[in-house]
Design a protein that fits this description.
The structure holds three protein chains of three kinds.
Chain A: H1 2-23, H2 34-47, H3 52-60, H4 62-83, H5 87-93, H6 104-126, H7 135-152, H8 160-183, H9 207-246
Chain B: H1 3-28, H2 32-53, H3 66-72, H4 75-80, H5 85-116, H6 121-127
Chain C: H1 3-25, H2 29-49, H3 53-77
Helix pairs in contact in C: 1-2, 2-3
Classes of the chains: A mainly alpha, B mainly alpha, C mainly alpha.
Chain lengths: 247, 129, 83
């Protein structure tokens, strides 16, 4: 009965939503916002950046991105504090990953593919202002490479101190570049470097620098999240084994 | 019906049904992991809705690559055929934040399971700590 | 968009809705998680067709790889079947 009522209710919401969005023009030129047209005209002219999405994320709405990276940092910190009650559990278990080894195909492929995945990620975030991609995508790709190694080698550990350092340095770089804009007598995150020429690797002023910092930060944060959540599975295995031995 | 109208119904229909199916899972399911799964499906539907609103038929991606500049010569002519970049920038950040939200929600589920030894939301409510 | 792409989009939309219903209905949570990763895969194709390559790249990496793995690790540490 409860399910039936909720289904009728949801179908009504779906119908109303569909009617509203069906009335909006789709696929024509009038659908584009004025601010979108402004960005499209000013990104290649003023900033000489080919990828307009990158120039919006890093330059026009750079403050927004700083907040977003902070939210991601909070998520990775909260994950650690929710899952681990004591610090010593974390350090005691980090050398215990020898229970089950993956098959040799996975291990060899992981060893060969890992440098290529990291290279692809670095390529994606260095060329973020020229081709599709950027710091977020590149960082996620690098985290996928680390995930591959974590799955293939059970004794592979990630030093959380290194991750913390990389993350903090990248964050300081982002905020520091923003503060330099203030010291130059302009606003926070002002593009103070020369913009160069359209479709060249060194163009767009501070945009590639910030996106490289964002790439390192996102890669470190997501690797930390994955390592924490995979470590917890090993914790549960170990406690299960111990209770079986005792009982 | 022409192509554009079919595309409109397909994209809007797909995104709205994803949102509604996700909402159904959140309302009626009693398993915590299923609820987080429903939230993730809702997230995907909303992202597709945003991208669909910014689409321009026969347009190109908002990137002034050498090939595009060669075809249209000037920046003004090229920007006339490009899709809206603002929604793409918004959705780009929304996807990454959505992953962070899912990870924290699953960590809370794991913690609740360790405390109560169940993922059923009704049983957890009945236990009263 | 051309007629062939329109047909592709209609098929993709049907797959999307079917996978979402399957994921919500199925009692085995691992199968449901794999169905959501199918949703992400089709969505990644949709974003590419809607001229958003940046978003397609992000969705392919996050939705298919990372979200699936954290769900599967959580299911492994809790109960596999919904009751």
């Amino acid at each position: 009965m409860k399910k039936l009522i909720s289904i009728i209710f949801l179908l009504y919401i779906a119908y109303q939503l569909f009617v509203v969005f069906y009335a909006i023009p789709f696929g024509t030129d009038e659908v584009r916002s004025k601010v979108g047209k402004f960005y499209l005209e000013h990104s290649p002219k003023d900033l000489q950046v080919a990828n307009t999405v990158t120039s919006i994320v890093v330059n026009f709405r750079g403050f927004d991105t700083l907040g977003e990276v902070t939210v991601l940092f909070l998520a990775s910190t909260a994950l650690g504090s929710i899952l681990f009650r004591r610090r010593e559990v974390h350090t005691r278990l980090s050398h215990l990953r020898t229970s089950v080894e993956a098959s040799s195909i996975v291990r060899v492929t992981g060893r060969i593919l890992f440098p290529m995945i990291v290279l692809l990620g670095a390529y994606v975030f260095i060329h973020g202002h020229l081709t599709p991609g950027g710091g977020f995508q590149g960082g996620v790709i690098i985290a996928t490479g680390f995930l591959f190694l974590l799955l293939a080698y059970r004794q592979f550990t990630i030093d959380h101190k290194t991750i913390m350092w990389v993350e903090s340095l990248a964050g300081i770089t982002f905020a520091g570049i923003g503060l330099v804009g203030i010291f130059m007598g302009k606003t926070f995150l002002e593009n103070f470097l020369g913009v160069g020429k359209l479709n060249e690797l060194i163009s767009g002023g501070i945009i590639p620098l910030i996106y490289i910092a964002v790439g390192f930060k996102v890669a470190a944060e997501l690797t930390g999240i994955l390592d924490t959540i995979l470590l917890i599975s090993i914790t549960v295995d170990e406690t299960e084994n111990q209770t079986e031995k005792n009982g | 019906m022409d192509n554009l109208q079919i595309l409109k119904i397909a994209f809007y229909g797909a995104s709205i049904s994803l949102i509604i199916v996700g909402l159904y899972a959140v309302i009626t399911k009693r398993n915590l992991i299923k609820i987080v799964l429903g939230l993730s499906i809702m997230d995907n539907g909303l992202n597709l809705l945003f991208i669909t609103i910014g689409f321009v038929n026969n347009g190109t991606a908002p990137i002034f690559s050498p090939l595009v500049m060669e075809k249209y010569k000037t920046v003004e002519a090229a920007s006339q055929v490009m899709v809206d970049p603002v929604v793409q920038a918004l959705v780009l950040t929304a996807i990454v934040i959505g992953f962070g939200v899912t990870a924290v929600a699953l960590a809370l589920v794991l913690r609740l399971y360790r405390h109560h030894n169940t993922t059923n939301i009704d049983e957890i409510r009945n236990l009263k700590w | 968009m051309s007629t062939i792409l329109t047909i592709l989009v209609v098929i993709g939309a049907i797959v999307l809705i079917a996978a979402a219903l399957f994921a919500v209905h199925k009692r085995d949570l691992v199968v449901a998680t794999v169905a959501t990763s199918v949703i992400s895969l089709v969505l990644s194709l949709f974003y590419f067709l809607l001229q958003a390559p940046d978003v397609a790249l992000t969705e392919a990496a996050i939705g298919v790889a990372l979200t699936t793995i954290i769900f599967i690790v959580t299911i492994r540490n809790t109960k596999r079947f919904e009751d």
